[in-house]
């Protein structure tokens, strides 16, 4: 793999606007109107969110990520896709580079809702 060029520089203030948190994926289910999206129910400690992720064709068994912790961007506006609402974004690694994607996850168990950065 040849790494993609580094994107344009951003300010630290722009970076600080991102709210990336740890959550536990409680369940993974199909989105009826989509060939790519899966619906993740994610526990962030003080609340649960529905987050849609385009992982259906990336993984042989998308349910394999159930009960795993991962990183999520939680301060994006809600977005309706395929008739479902997504309340954030899974922060995964590899997809943009054509590499088999994997979760960005903490190396050990950490409280849900913990911020990254």
Describe this structure in words.
It is built from one helix and nine strands, in the order H-E-E-E-E-E-E-E-E-E. The protein has a domain at 26-103: Nucleic acid-binding proteins (OB fold (Dihydrolipoamide Acetyltransferase, E2P), Beta Barrel). The protein has 117 residues and is mainly β. Strands 3-2-1-4-7 form a five-stranded antiparallel beta sheet, with no helix packed on it. It has one helix at 12-16, and strands at residues 20-30, 38-43, 48-53, 69-73, 79-81, 84-86, 89-90, 92-93, 102-103. The mean pLDDT is 95. A hairpin with a 2-residue loop joins strand 5 (79-81) and strand 6 (84-86).
CATH class of the domain at 26-103: Mainly Beta
Rounded to the nearest angstrom, the distance between the terminal CA atoms is 27 Å
Indicate the CATH architecture of the domain at 26-103: Beta Barrel
Radius of gyration: 15 Å
Average residue pLDDT: 95
Uncertain residue segments: none
Number of strands: 9
Structural class: mainly beta
* Relevant CATH superfamily of the domain at 26-103: Nucleic acid-binding proteins
Give me the side-by-side strand order of the main sheet.
3-2-1-4-7
The shape is globular
* Portion in helices: under 10%
Largest sheet, strands/sense/barrel: 5 strands, antiparallel
**Number of helical segments?**
1
Binned strand content? 25-35%
The name of the CATH topology of the domain at 26-103 is: OB fold (Dihydrolipoamide Acetyltransferase, E2P)
SSE arrangement, N to C: HEEEEEEEEE
């Amino acid at each position: 793999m040849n790494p993609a060029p580094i994107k344009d520089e951003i300010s630290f203030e722009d970076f600080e606007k991102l709210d990336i948190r740890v959550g536990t994926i409680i369940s993974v289910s199909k989105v009826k109107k989509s060939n790519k999206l899966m619906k993740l129910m994610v526990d962030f400690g003080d609340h649960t969110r529905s987050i849609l992720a385009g992982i259906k064709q990336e993984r042989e068994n998308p349910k394999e990520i159930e009960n795993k912790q991962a990183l999520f961007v939680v301060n994006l506006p809600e977005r309706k896709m395929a008739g479902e609402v997504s309340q954030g974004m899974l922060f995964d690694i590899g997809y943009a580079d054509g590499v088999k994607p994997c979760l960005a996850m903490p190396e050990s168990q950490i409280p849900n809702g913990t911020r990254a950065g």
